[in-house]
Amino acid sequence: MSRRAATARKVLLTGFDPFGGETINPSWEAVRGLDGEDIAGHRIVATCLPTEFGRSRRALRAAIARAEPGIVLCVGQAGGRAALSIERVAINVDDARIPDNAGRQPVDRPIIADAPAAYFATLPIKSMLTALQGAGVPAEISQTAGTFVCNHVFFALMHALASRRTCRGGFVHIPYLPEQAARHPGAPGLALETVQRGLRILIETAATTRRDRRIAAGATH
Amino acid sequence: MSRRAATARKVLLTGFDPFGGETINPSWEAVRGLDGEDIAGHRIVATCLPTEFGRSRRALRAAIARAEPGIVLCVGQAGGRAALSIERVAINVDDARIPDNAGRQPVDRPIIADAPAAYFATLPIKSMLTALQGAGVPAEISQTAGTFVCNHVFFALMHALASRRTCRGGFVHIPYLPEQAARHPGAPGLALETVQRGLRILIETAATTRRDRRIAAGATH
Amino acid sequence: MSRRAATARKVLLTGFDPFGGETINPSWEAVRGLDGEDIAGHRIVATCLPTEFGRSRRALRAAIARAEPGIVLCVGQAGGRAALSIERVAINVDDARIPDNAGRQPVDRPIIADAPAAYFATLPIKSMLTALQGAGVPAEISQTAGTFVCNHVFFALMHALASRRTCRGGFVHIPYLPEQAARHPGAPGLALETVQRGLRILIETAATTRRDRRIAAGATH
Amino acid sequence: MSRRAATARKVLLTGFDPFGGETINPSWEAVRGLDGEDIAGHRIVATCLPTEFGRSRRALRAAIARAEPGIVLCVGQAGGRAALSIERVAINVDDARIPDNAGRQPVDRPIIADAPAAYFATLPIKSMLTALQGAGVPAEISQTAGTFVCNHVFFALMHALASRRTCRGGFVHIPYLPEQAARHPGAPGLALETVQRGLRILIETAATTRRDRRIAAGATH
User: What is the role of this chain (chains A, B, C, D) (predicted)?
Assistant: First the structure.
């Protein structure tokens, strides 16, 4: 039993702390409620990352080293988006419109010098999209994770995993919670329960899918 | 007991049946779950109206005659909106972009000949807005209920109430449910629980507020 | 000659002065360029109205008294809209989110006491829509002119015309100019030339159309 | 004189032919009108690329070989965007929601096998943004060029230039023309003249700017 636990595969699931004037971050609200759950033979380990350039990716690296996961799914807030937004690609640049939680605001700076310009997610994003839609959870593929701390962490994740063939990774943006949307006229709000149901589906699909489906979900521009 | 029931004030709460290719209508899903509840001394009577010009307003009139309510709140689906959208005004025109559920598609036809061009809601819409926002439910004042069956019913409601000083009325549009939004890329989806919590707040506020607050919630255009 | 001029039918075309932090108002920029033109036997008289509750409608009434027009078309800025937006209905309420140019910000106040709740435009809005679309000018029917000074003037116009059977009236909202849009990220900008071409088509259609077309151009909500 | 012409630096400016049911493509309409112009000591050479995977990038390579330009700016249509949208990054994937003009619809296929995951534009995109805004042309930095033929060509361009230190390149998406927008309700339309003025500014800025400005123009998500 203890042996089995010791060898159980792990999913590292990360959220962020609040930023940009919000008092909560829906990513951490959603993620922390799943900590310790077992999904498709994987134990979920939830971690909260600081919304700070630099510190966030060091915290992520430390969490990966601790958990030795087979899957890493990072989750971040995308106020204004309406759906669970599965990111396709992380790009090697920071360009911050607002300061991070430490007051830093890098502009057009590589995240990691001498690293590639971008990494694609290695999770089966199209199968994940299909699974969410089939379960009635609003979902989409996104072609950009922006240039703020979310993309920063996503890029650092994929860079770290580039040398680890045994671990796959990806990123999903989530909408405001309804109580946040209530303060942002016009912005969609998705219920915590719906987001958590979606995250469970994403993890199960990632855990059980080796070969992604080929379904068109691109953008004409 | 029977006496008390006989004298209890009623709230007539209406939803619609599905239209436009949907298999559910969130308005009826939300409304029917509240049937029989007591809120601020009012008993909720829920009724489903057909999404049809003409038949819908006859069904509404019949429901008003049966329930003799002190408050009528009609609820309709507004796919694409993100918030509980409290309508300010109903206008005396049908102009249907799509056929109703009976296949009729009136264009630029008065709803009721010789009736006024418009009626304002008589519920305290600004107090209702404030109450929703304070409770963390996404909400807004809307300056138009469109020109389809929702506006048709809203106009017919206010016309019927114009001669009854003892009953106040209004209309609220609600977003898609998440499972509907999952089939409409980019459209917001609000959870049934959030909508129902919002409807309870709207009814309580309407029941307990005589004089509306003066808070700016207009539109520059 | 002077006789002919004296009896020529007139179109009163109004724009507004800048508001809300803008240094120009596209409505007046467009309108003043058409002053004195002859379209379908009508002479255009252009007037600039102040973006102020009260003063704007007194200025409008004075301009109508001076010009004795057969057609009045009021034009206003709708920053964020993408098309020439032909308004269907004016409602009898002021609800200002921002102060007008005199610093006044009325909330939920009737524009004219004892006047009807609303007036419909008496210009052939569907024929005007069709004519614009046929000429390649972005156009739409709008079900609300908002609750700021534009709606205020539109309502006052239709109230003034209600007792004059010889004059028809309406309102059209126009987008930002490109140079304004350049300062409002995401907002559409329509070229002055396109707007003016559209206004000429609107006036010609209004002047030559007695019976409007019945074409669906409503909104489901 | 002929000698000078022979050694004059060139700007290769490309547009696309119509796709997706349109009868014109604003990119080629705008670009062809600038053919032969001289801007900041550079002669513009305009070329039309087919909206086809594969053929488009071969046509681009041939045009580069012919013109031997110092700058390449590719221009494409982005129906629904409101501004001149300067692209930051091209990614190595085709994912077509609609078939290209040859009926092909690749899904999740690398554009160039063994090439990097992405390339950043090498033109001074922030200086270009600032110049457009200063001239009153609606402009923005875009973090994704999509996954259709525009991104395909942009990626192929940057891959071709990666081995040519003497030539810099980039991509700009432009809105519909007003006559196109007239057929797409809600979509912005920007006048041809405004687009062409913008393109001249982009080329002049690219030609005269060696070191880009550091101005925040990223996206939080």
Answer: Removes 5-oxoproline from various penultimate amino acid residues except L-proline.
* Type of residue numbered A63: A
User: Which of A148, A111, C171, A81 lies closest to B82 in space, CA to CA?
Assistant: A81
Q: Would residue D74 show up in a list of annotated catalytic residues for this protein?
A: no
| Residue C107 to residue B216, Cβ atoms within 8 A | yes
D173: annotated active-site residue: yes
Domain that holds residue C103: 3-208
Domain for residue D218, yes or no?
A: no
User: Looking at the predicted structure, is the pLDDT value of residue A91 above 80?
Assistant: yes
What is residue C3's predicted lDDT score, i.e. its pLDDT?
44
In a domain, B90, yes or no: yes
D92-128 pLDDT tens trace: 999 999 999 999 999 999 999 999 999 999 999 999 9
Q: How many domains does chain B have?
A: 1
Q: What's the pLDDT band for D8 if we cut at 50, 70, 90?
A: confident
Whether residue D211 contacts residue D127, with contact meaning beta carbons closer than 8 Å, is answered with no
Distances, alpha carbon B80 to alpha carbons A63, B173, C141, C156, C175, in Å: 39, 11, 18, 33, 22
DSSP code of residue D88? -
Beta bridge pairs of residue D16: D49
Which among D76, D126, D221 has the least Cβ separation from residue A81? Answer: D221
A134-170 per-position pLDDT tens digit: 999 999 999 999 999 999 999 999 999 999 889 999 9
**Which residues 6+ apart lie within 8 Å of D86 measured at CB?**
D121, D125, D128, D129, D139, D140, D141, D142, D170, D171, D172, D202
Cβ contacts of C215 on chain B, cutoff 8 Å: 107
Label residue B166 by pLDDT band (50, 70, 90).
Answer: very high
Q: Are C195 and C76 in contact (CB under 8 A)?
A: no
Q: In the structure, what pLDDT confidence band is assigned to residue A8 with cuts at 50, 70 and 90? A: confident
Cα-based distances in Å from A12 to A24, A34, A69: 21, 11, 6
Residue B213: inside a domain: no
How much is the ipTM here? Answer: 0.95
* Residue D213 covered by a domain: no
Closest-CA distance of chain C to residue B131, Å: 18
